[in-house]
Amino acid sequence: MTGSDFADRLTRIIAVAIGFSLVAVAIVMARPAGGHGGVLPASLRISAGQDGAVAISPAAPKPLLDSGPMRPGSHASGRMRLRNETGESLAIGFRAEPSSTALDGIARVKITAAGRTIADTTLQALRQGTAGRVRLASGAAAAVQVRAWIPAETETGYEGASVDVLLSTVEAGGR
Q: DSSP letters of the chain?
């Protein structure tokens, strides 16, 4: 075997190895994203609307919760501050107005204030409003935490859903 034949053979072996390596890299890169079967995640964005009786910060259009990519087991949380702008005590509840029904029976939402749970329900049930209320005297303020998640046992139904939710206040006299 001459030096030229050896060099040709070595070049071919190296070229085949590089080719196999490139194919392996292409296969790895083409695989779906990791996580729950490689499907698109959901996203949930919650903003709170003001009505004049209750000042809210942050107020829509600024979100109080922006989940980013959500898959089963993912959690997101945000905070808002309420202040009673009226001359009387108020009992303040909340009602969800989602842009879509895509996550209605899937996404869970928990709202707490002053150590009390105001709601712990699905996004769908939150459309009807909360049974619990935040009680505020005239001029008083309270911090409210909103937590949203897709339960870990959820297998399907959330894929690629993107839902914007307006959380509206529902006031009643708070005696």
A: --HHHHHHHHHHHHHHHHHHHHHHHHHHHHSPPSSSTTPPPBEEEEEEE--SSEEEESPTTSEEEE--SB-TT-EEEEEEEEEE-SSS-EEEEEEEEES-STTTTT-EEEEEETTEEEEEEEHHHHTT--SS-EEE-TT-EEEEEEEEE--TT--SS-TT-EEEEEEEEEEEE--
User: Where residue 64 falls among pLDDT bands split at 50, 70, 90?
Assistant: very high
Please tell us whether the domain made up of 43-173 is placed in CATH 3.10.300.10. Answer: no
Span 115-135, mean pLDDT? 95
